[in-house]
Amino acid sequence: VFIVPGSIEYRTKTIDNTLNPEWNEIFEFVVEQYESDSIEFEVYDEDLGKDDFIGRAQLPLNTLVDDDHINTWLTLQDIKNGSLNVSLQYFSLTKQKSALEIIERKNNEVKKGEKLSKALLVCYIDRCLNLPQSKKTRQEPNPFCRVKVEGTETKTQTYESQTNPQFEHISQILCSNPLHEKLKIYVCNAKCKNEVIAYFEMPIKEVYDADTMTIDTQSYPLKSVSGPLDKTEIILHLSLF
């Protein structure tokens, strides 16, 4: 099954030789347009070469009630017989710290013991200042940033020959344990096999502890694995929902 919420696509594992497959898989994603977006489900028969299309179903997101959990059967279209059982839960963004406990309880109702997300970290990278030249080439780097929380990673675009790149990049990362996880940002040089030229780390709990769980735009010193950096900074705005 392919699950398509907006522009993102997820795929389940393949269940062999059955007309009644059971996947028991969970997918989490950020909804951009709650009022207008739908989740599309497409079912295929995996085959050598090209997979055979079986049927599709669609569910408008605005049919979901905040914090509520629904379990429903969707009738597959473009096929004589067939249906798909799905379980869904929607959470709206909030700045209330007490919501973490509520979400954890709701997550356990979906699937107890599953490592599900409790919060959304929004990291806005404005720019970097005074990045060092490459020690190998003695040239200005082609910088980009890798933004990482646990196993989730996003990347900014790459800029050519910049020591003060203006990224203006937003990363949205779902966090399963925000009070014990770290935000890690690696500034890399695409010109030299993506070597890390500087990095930044912060416990996400610092964002949680801030007023309204937001740290307004400010600069932070960048570190280097190869030695101290002179006035090398990254400018960030951080929010937790």
Overview of this protein structure:
- The chain has helices at 99-110, 205-209, and strands at 2-5, 10-11, 38-45, 52-60, 69-75, 83-89, 119-129, 143-149, 152-155, 166-175, 182-189, 195-203, 214-221, 233-240.
- With 241 residues, it is mostly beta strands.
- Helices cover 7% and strands 42% of the residues.
- The chain folds into two domains: 2-90, Immunoglobulin-like (Sandwich); 119-240, C2 domain (Immunoglobulin-like).
- It is built from two helices and 14 strands.
- Strands 2-1-3-4 form a four-stranded antiparallel sheet, with no helix packed on it. The chain has a four-stranded antiparallel sheet with strand order 10-7-14-13, with no helix packed on it. A four-stranded antiparallel sheet has the order 9-8-11-12.
- The mean pLDDT is 89.
- The longest helix has 12 residues, at 99-110.
- The two termini are 30 Å apart.
- It is globular and about 65 Å long.
